Amino acid sequence: MALNCGIVGLPNVGKSTIFSALTSAKAEIANYPFCTIDPNHGIVAVPDPRLDVLVQKFQPKRRVPATIEFVDIAGLVSGASKGEGLGNQFLSHIREVGMIAHVVRCFEDPDVIHVSNRIDPTDDIDVIHTELALADLETVDKRMDKLQKQLRVQDPQIRKDSEKEIAALEKIRPLLQAGKPARLAALEEEEEEAIRSSFLITMKKEIFVCNVDEKGLGDNPYVDEVRRIAQSLASEAVVICGKYEAELADIQDPNERQAFLADIGLAESGLSSLIHSAYRQLGLRTFFTAGADECRAWTIRAGDKAPQAAGVIHTDFERGFIKAEVYSFDDLVTYGSEAAVKAAGKLRQEGKDYVVQDGDIVFFKFNV
């Protein structure tokens, strides 16, 4: 399972710089609006020290991390929902991603043009949220018109489904009119399922990315402002210095990377923080398979049971699932080896109802 995350924001807030640092791909970077028109795509390995430990212990032929796909989407401007600045095209790109990384400029630099000629994170965020909400409002109104017609059909199931979807959309509509995201609506699980086919942009999870300069990693009132907004929306804010991340991307040696981070007072890179935040927001978990041939990290959703996790590896594994042999990464660290984990009785046989936990090391048995 690859996480798909769209990088959005106003023009000239540093989206392409961050994308290039994330993927080590050289997206076009320029000091003018709409430098990016077609979205850039890049696959990034998810940082996970646990996989490094497994590689040390098993000495496999291959090390395969979990991955995340980032999509660098061109800047939105006020009026995008009405087509301003190629807005319709850019909004369609946002609809195609699984979640949003909303980049907000939190630095001052007279040499880098701001579309509003001032640094104001709250206003910048409001512009993006308003345009996304207006785009969704148009979608909701069109859908409501269609559903009202379906209420007149003879089929009682169609009428019932339409009533359920209308009730959900009526909860969402006032939020969109106020420029707020649809995901803030108090929807029942059935209502969420009912509106899924509308593909509302503002139902997507959103993380705020504070792009700062070298001086902005410490006390930064702009960052504080973004964090307050993120908290009010039950989201998270991460801080990234594009210049430092670009330098880190060119350092291959892990020890040199750690020394660089220590010099600037960080425990991990801003990009690692972004990836981990995305996992938390989407409720993702990682389990591992480990052996002499390969150590690999696999991504599942919280609550997935053993057969579903097996299906991430191969559909045959899920279809013919028999059982899973499971032990935890923490137990491997505690006891030192797989053999010692088994000797301590910490390796378990789990069936179809077992909910796979983050950090589980699993061997699936199946028959097809």
Write a brief structural summary:
With 368 residues, this protein is α/β, with parallel strands linked by helices. The chain contains 14 helices and 12 strands.
CATH evolutionary superfamily of the largest domain: P-loop containing nucleotide triphosphate hydrolases
Runs in which pLDDT lies below 50 for 5 or more consecutive residues are 25-37, 83-87
How many distinct beta strands? 12
Number of helices: 14
Order of helices and strands: EHEHEEHEHHHEHEHHHEEHHEHHEE
Q: State the CATH class of the largest domain.
A: Alpha Beta
CATH topology call of the largest domain: Rossmann fold
Mean pLDDT score? 86
* Radius of gyration from CA coordinates: 23 Å
Q: What profile does the largest beta sheet have?
A: 6 strands, mixed
The total tally of domains equals: 3
Task: Give the neighbour order of strands across the main sheet.
Answer: 2-4-1-5-6-7
Question: Could you explain how this protein is built, in words?
Answer:
With 368 residues, the chain is of the alpha/beta class. The protein folds into 3 domains: 3-47 and 66-117 and 203-281, P-loop containing nucleotide triphosphate hydrolases (Rossmann fold); 130-201, DNA polymerase, domain 1; 303-366, Beta-grasp domain (Ubiquitin-like (UB roll)), CATH 3.10.20. It contains 14 helices and 12 strands. It has helices at residues 15-23, 49-58, 87-95, 121-150, 156-177, 189-195, 221-232, 242-249, 254-263, 270-282, 306-313, 315-319, 329-335, 338-343, and strands spanning 3-8, 40-45, 62-64, 67-72, 99-105, 205-212, 237-241, 284-290, 294-301, 321-328, 348-350, 360-366. The strands form 3 sheets. It has a 6-stranded mixed sheet, sandwiched between helices. The protein has a 3-stranded mixed sheet with strand order 3-9-8, sandwiched between helices. The radius of gyration is 23 Å and the shape is flat. Mean pLDDT is 86; it is low at 25-37 and 83-87.
